[in-house]
Amino acid sequence: MKTLLLTHPLPAQVFVDAVHAIDPQLPLLEYQPGLADAALGDVEAVLGWRFPAGVAARLPRLRWVCSVGAGVEKLLVPELLPRVQVSRIVDVEQADGIAQLVVLMALRHARGLAAYEAQQHTRQWVRQPIGALRSRVGVLGMGTMGSAVARMLQAVGFQVTGYSRHSGQSLQAVLGGSDIIVCALPLTPQTEGLLDARAFASMPRGSYLINIARGAHVVEPDLIAAVRTGQLAGAALDVQSREPLPADDPLWDVPGITITPHIAAQSSPQTIAEQFVQGWRCLQRGEVPHNLVDRVRGY
Ligand code: GLV
């Protein structure tokens, strides 16, 4: 069962090495733009991050797509035949890594660290009022990532409310009752652009946004306007709608917005390879791979 590697921008060789360390015989093909249809004709599996335009339509024998990440939205292309199963990596260590970045950013905001960093530049030893120790945090999305985030935030003293399609509270209520909002949602047509001017207007004045999900959840011009007018105190964005974020993007220049380059946490190539090989063996035995996503729901 030949597997096509579509890991770009991550280097494919890292995944070749990790998969072959477990099973040296497993047939892998690294995608190159010039590959002939003949080379793709017998591909039955994909391990990847995104489909380059037109490639899915050139894989007539494709049965399984395994995402190298937790999110699958760049792999759910319309050309994917209905029989193709799509799975993702579920990695508790990655979730904990993401939760650490969220706690770091939430504490940095709640304890006013940016103000002290600014004071240090001018050698001012001035005490500011201590920010609320028990800020209310709304976590949007309570899957593997959101649940880990909620647990770690609670452990350092935040009051956490989780929001998911099963939770009783409306989105408006969670937005309105939170000093900090964390976005941990999957990106689907329903969640794209969810954090827009209306959502920011529902949040209490001076509240804060942390996004560790996907840039496209946020309408970035609306966020910039909300921060510039003081409706939001700021935001920590580990993800942006354009990645890498171009040097001339207006997000870079907004006081209060902290940009990190999608570094909250990644699964290790070894974890990805282990879960991929497990899934691959399941298919060989005629079983269903683990951690399948619902293609209609999008996660
Ligand atoms: C990272 O963003 C992932 O989806 O794993």
Tell me what you see in this structure.
The protein contains nine helices and eleven strands. Helix 1 links the parallel strand 1 and strand 2. The model has no long low-confidence stretch (mean pLDDT 97). Helix 3 (92-110) packs across helix 5. With 299 residues, the chain is an alpha/beta fold. Glyoxylic acid (GLV) binds next to loops.
Fraction of residues in β-strands: 15-25%
Radius of gyration: 21 Å
Total E-strand runs = 11
Mean pLDDT: 97
Within CATH, the superfamily of the largest domain carries the name: NAD(P)-binding Rossmann-like Domain
Biggest sheet strand order reads: 7-6-8-9-10-11
Bound compounds, please?
A: glyoxylic acid
Instruction: Find the structural class using helix and strand composition.
Output: alpha/beta
Give the second-level CATH assignment, the architecture of the largest domain: 3-Layer(aba) Sandwich
Largest sheet: 6 strands, parallel
The stretches of 5 or more residues where confidence is low (pLDDT under 50) are none
Determine the CATH topology of the largest domain: Rossmann fold
Quickly name the level 1 CATH class of the largest domain: Alpha Beta
Output the number of helix runs: 9
Q: Span between N and C termini? A: 25 Å
Helix residue percentage: 25-40%
General shape: elongated
Question: How many discrete domains?
Answer: 2
What order do the SSEs take from the amino end to the carboxyl end, as H and E?
EHEHEEEHHEHEHEHEHEEH
